[in-house]
Amino acid sequence: MNTNSDLRRTILDHSRSMLVEHGFDTLSMRRIANAVGCSATSIYLYFKNKDALLHALIEEGFDLMYQELQQLDIESLNSLERIEILCRTFIKFGLENPEYYEVMFQLHPKHMERYPVEKFRKARKNIDLIMYEIIEGHKLALFHIPDARVVANVILATLHGAVSLLNAKRVDARVGQESFIETIIHSVLAGLKSTATVPSVT
Question: How far is 19 from 22, CA to CA, in rounded Å?
Fold first, then answer.
């Protein structure tokens, strides 16, 4: 017999796959219950509504990404090298976890409760890891970037575009995936390094 934690895990796993396949608006607690093999009432023991279930999946995805980024052994590297590895790990996570990635970044329900502020702050910690390295690199004069948050989000947009195109198989078939990823990473790093000669404004 499944324990309570097993059932919650099963609900989340089935819901994630069904969200990606059918979309949020057509998904119902009853449909999830039928897929899981439990009653709709059982699902409400864990999630008060469909919005709460989606929020839990988004949070779980960002937590998993943060765990991967946090456990990287990059202490001995400089900020530019750390940013490179963080970017590679972001892309790797997105490609290896396409369902999570779609739930985290690409679902846009027409009607959904606002994502809780505390959960959004947790999710933001992923891009903050890159932002902190930009701040550190700026201090060490590896590059000149006074507004690290803006640049970190531009990097996020670049990485997100790459992952989204690869997952959707929208990259020209004549372009190799490895070459595509390497060029994306090179572009991010080149953009950072190009600011190194910009004089500081006093």
Answer: 5
pLDDT at site 200: 47
CA dist., res. 130 & res. 180, Å (int)? 21
CATH number of the structural domain spanning residue 102: 1.10.357.10
- What H or E segment, with its residue span, contains residue 152? helix 148-167
Q: Each residue of 100-112: pLDDT tens digit?
A: 999 999 887 777 7
- 79 Cβ contact partners less than 8 Å away, ≥ 6 residues apart: 133, 134, 136, 137, 140, 142
Total domains, the chain: 2
* Residues 129-186 pLDDT 10s: 999 999 999 999 999 999 999 999 999 999 999 999 999 999 999 999 999 999 999 9
Those residues whose C-beta lies under 8 Å from the C-beta of residue 162, and which sit 6 or more positions away, are 91, 180, 181, 184
Looking at the structure, do residues 104 and 173 belong to the same domain, yes or no?
A: yes
- pLDDT tens digits, 1-16: 456 779 999 999 999 9
Asked if 38 and 88 sit in the same domain, the reply is: no
Residue type, 17: S
Q: Are residues 118 and 143 in the same domain?
A: yes
Taking the C-alpha atoms of residue 113 and residue 63, their distance in angstroms, rounded to an integer, is 20
**39 and 131 belong to one structural domain:** no
Considering the domain architecture, whether residues 38 and 136 belong to the same structural domain is answered as no
